[in-house]
Specification:
two-stranded antiparallel sheet, 39% helix, globular
Length: 141
Amino acid sequence: MKYEDLHEIAKPLARLLAVGLSKTFNLKGYKVSFVPADKRRKRYRGYNQAELLAREVASALQLECIDALDRIRLTESQIFSNSYVERRRNIRGSIIAKEKIEGNILLIDDVITSGATVEEAAKQLYRAGASNVVAVAVCMG
């Protein structure tokens, strides 16, 4: 989806994810958010694939989707990092919450490989006041 400009598959992927989530979690009262893309990559692709997925998941589950996080530092693509330690160091301090968060958050990303990116994003959501963060992705790397 992100490397071949296949943004149109976000909707069917998100619908499948929503079905699985609705059978696994009680998400009543959750808000949906997404891992932010850095501005350079979003400008190049024209979209943030995690945001497309999150908005479709929120719609399917009839939940509010919020743009809660921002990238404040450009990072190297995580595909070039070979270890969790490298990935963690690369992403540390690159994501912040835009404002205070209340309640529970369903955090969406397109791919989770080591978990370093969603860990950093979740950490910032908790720091901003989130009660609980559930992180999910369409794929595992």
